[in-house]
Amino acid sequence: MEQANKRPFGFYICSIAFTFERFAFYSAKWLMTIFVALAIADGGLGLTAADAAKMSANLVAFTYLAPLFGAYVSDYWVGARYLVPIGMVLMGIGYLVGWQANSALMINVMIALVSIGTGLFKPQTNAITGRLFDDETQLDGAFSTQYSFVNIGSFIGTTTIGLLALRYGHQFCFLICAIVMFIDAIWFIFGWKHLGLAGKKPFKINEQAEKVEEINTEKKPLTSLEKKRVAAIILVSAFSIIFWVFWYLAYMPVYFHWGEGAANWMIGNFEVPTAWFDSLNALACIALGPILGALWVRRARSPKGDWNMFQKTALGIMLLGLSYVIFAAAELVRGTGQASLLWIIAFGIVLTLGEMVFSPLGNSFITKFAPPKLLSMMMSVWVVSIFFAGKSYGWIYEFTLQFPFVPTYFTIAGIALLCGILLWAMSSKLQGLVRDEEVE
User: Fold this and answer.
1) What residues contact 389, with CB distance under 8 A and at least 6 apart?
2) With a threshold of 0.85, does the pTM exceed it?
3) Over the stretch 306-353, which tens digit does the pLDDT of each residue have?
4) Which fold has domain 220-435?
């Protein structure tokens, strides 16, 4: 479908679809969290910050879990290209519910609709993108570029919605998110002709030969090396729970502690919206991506070679811990005053750096080392671990509210740093367990 090094136009259909969807999702995630805890007199639901954190956690958690069901539907029942706009419309309807929400029940209905819609949209759009390329060597570059489209959508969304919410209110901005998703559905439908045959039929329909090979493979027992690799994947997934719990948790005190008087969000006469902390994450991803890519290339060309997957995972967790050190230190330094906006920026950049080192490794690691017949199961283990982390951070935030801020967040920093150091210390042994000795 694609000629030479030119990417098919269908790739941009899918990538721009992600831009629109992430514009709406990240905006709505911030809107919902603030709206739930905002006083009724100010146009919110008047619930507690802990309630807002738990609802935010539900949105994150179920939008990770639903794609497991969506992927099965597109594999065996309905062509992926038809599921994508259905998912977009469901998300749009969910945001319309948020626009009219006057109770926690309606927010939960919105979460359910957005989660189901994400399940029909996200894995299918990724799968279609992968099938647009005949040359597999172009896939890494294509998905890296698509990740930039994702971050551009997030950045534009939270930046503009953060400003509009100050002027028109948080609830009204859900309507904007809904309109964006309906436009996204129209965009994708009009782009069908550029997708060729990708996603017209369930993906497994024309893979009979692969199924025969898969059946023959499944009859063979796992080798000793494969068992070690499965154990390593489960271990890394356990560390991923720790990472994502603390990563998502970080946003709550930014919104509800620093955002409610502990930090100075003013630049002259302009008040920076707390949504711009989310914008900072997206902007840092866009800016730091090429720098990290160059670093890994330089490491790979060095005499010692690149760090292994376990070392990079450990480094990501340690950077997360360092971001919490900055967080707690800012609170310690401010005393009874307000923390400078520079502390928030430093915290956000280091937090994002940890994410960028840690996040891409999971799928890559599992794809490389999982036994072929257990690939889907191992991918599910990774997704479920993130679901568990997403579901947990709201309850953990509620628990942290019982304790003083500084020791609480220094403790979290210590846990993350200790986990990172522990994983780094085990990295050589773990790499030895999963390394294919025959290749060596």
Assistant:
1) 61, 240, 241, 242, 243, 244, 245, 248
2) yes
3) 788 889 889 999 999 999 999 999 999 998 899 999 999 999 999 999
4) Growth Hormone; Chain: A; (1.20.1250)
